[in-house]
Amino acid sequence: MIIHKNLASGRWFKFSFLEQLANVGTDISRCIRLKNKGDLEMSNDAFYRALELLDFTIADPKNKGPRLRELLRVREALIDHFLCDNEYNTTDEQWHTYFFDFNYAAALAKGK
To answer: Which domain holds residue 20?
Structure first.
């Protein structure tokens, strides 16, 4: 099931790489915040939204090459952290830090 229908039609590819990962990070942060509040259903919804955006980012032709490897590792580690046994031992704080950097860089690129 596609959650972001308007982005699936190609609009997502118009965003820069930094904007794409900043948007993924927004849903990951929302997922963590809701999980910590005990709202697991809404947390899972946010996680699946983030995963869909990450999949769109992976499919974007401009993100082939070295970026693709990182994106696939991020996807694997996110699934491990949120859905599996967290074998990579990542923390919520590490995910906040990882995605905050993209938010910051995207804001700088836009002159904010």
So the answer is: 15-109
